[in-house]
Please model this.
Amino acid sequence: MNEQQKKKISKFLSYVLRHHPELIGLNLDENGWANVDELITKSKRESHQGLTFEELDEIVQTNEKKRFAFNEDKTRIRASQGHSIEINLALIPQQPPEFLYHGTAQSNIESILEKGIEKRGRQHVHLSQDKETATKVGMRHGKPVILTVRTQKMFEDGIEFYLSDNEVWLTDFVDAKYISN
Model:
């Protein structure tokens, strides 16, 4: 499978596993898990990607952002984070490092420094452990700006953080008082 095919499949999986499982009539459980056989069957029947298990396995194993995960026996699959639909990833609150980073576009800075970082249509605000990852995220939205978030201070103030399976830090909201650029 070439990189273009992988990208196309990854986008399709993100769409159905994070946002619109109903597109192919896919059932997700309360934790966002889908039955792999059902995903394969429905992707073919609905004349979308027509996925095979081997393709799914390759995507899960090689996706550099680790966007998807199998359960232990590879009978179920889910997106690691980034859902706009209500699911419970069953994450346990954790203490974050002193600082985390948020990549955004220059055009968003004024609003963020005034209102904070909102989750908008997603379940959580996403924060990165390093500036390089935050830069890549910010580049998707325009000229990137990297914001430093004082996450240890947030944690001390009683705000919960979670670490997703693919090591993205998640929280509900970042007040502007914790942000610097």
Observations:
- The domain at 100-180 is CATH 3.20.170.30 (ADP-ribosylation fold).
